[in-house]
Amino acid sequence: MTSALDIKAMDRRRFLFTALGGGAALVLAGASLMRWRGGKGAGAIAAATPTTASPPQMLLLECFADNDGHDLGPCDVHKLVLSDAQWHERLSDAAFNVMRRAGTEMAFSGPHEKPNSKGLYRCAGCATALFDASTQFDSGTGWPSFWRSISKRNVIESRDASYGMIRTAVSCAGCDSHLGHVFDDGPAPTGLRYCMNSVAMRFVAYRVS
User: Fold this and answer.
1) To bridge 167 with a disulfide, which of 37, 52, 160, 161 should be the other Cys (CB 3.0-4.6 Å)?
2) Rounded CA separation 38/15 (Å)
3) CB of 81 within 8 A of CB of 90?
């Protein structure tokens, strides 16, 4: 005959077995979930979490050949997006101040005279084609000046209200780097003067004359 104490002891053992069995089931379920997510531990869960990083932005720019400046037509290009530290590695201090901080180099401090050879100017940050040397003229300002850009696709013009003036800022479409400003006091045929900073560009001479 089973006593009341024996019944209570059996009930306790049954309760402990049920509780431990449930906990083991949860552990096994958790382990299975981690294996399903592709690995072990917290790292596996983090790896399975969808990334929030944005995909590279594609741009439709106008591309030009280095050897003779031939227009290659519209082309898809990844927009260059870098951190400040990465830009510092890529650019000189002077170029960083102009291109990433919208600064202005000192007049007559850079190679502003029209080159003797034919060629084009590319962005110092991402190599997007910006100006053909055939459109460059001596404005007497001390900064390289052009009466048009090589393509409207490749430059961005925006309103600049800094320093109590209203101007039109010009930046590179390929990387959003500041280049200079455009004014309406240039020569024919456009009447425009794209006043650029030397450090924001690099000249590429044509290899075919």
Assistant:
1) 160
2) 35
3) no
Range of the domain at 158: 58-205
Question: Could you list the active site residues?
Answer: 195
Cα–Cα distance, 61 to 73 (Å, whole number): 8
Q: Based on the number of CB atoms within 10 Å of its own CB, is 67 exposed (0-12), middle (13-18) or buried (19 or more)?
A: exposed
Mean pLDDT in order along the chain per 10 residues (209 residues)? 44 43 39 32 34 76 96 97 97 98 95 88 98 96 97 98 95 98 98 98 89
Helices (H), 92-208: 93-99
> In this structure, is residue 163 part of a structural domain?
yes
Domain-embedded: residue 14: no
Query: Looking at the domain assignment, is residue 15 inside a domain?
Result: no
DSSP H/E element including 75: strand 71-78
Task: Indicate the helix (H) or strand (E) that contains 42.
Answer: helix 41-48
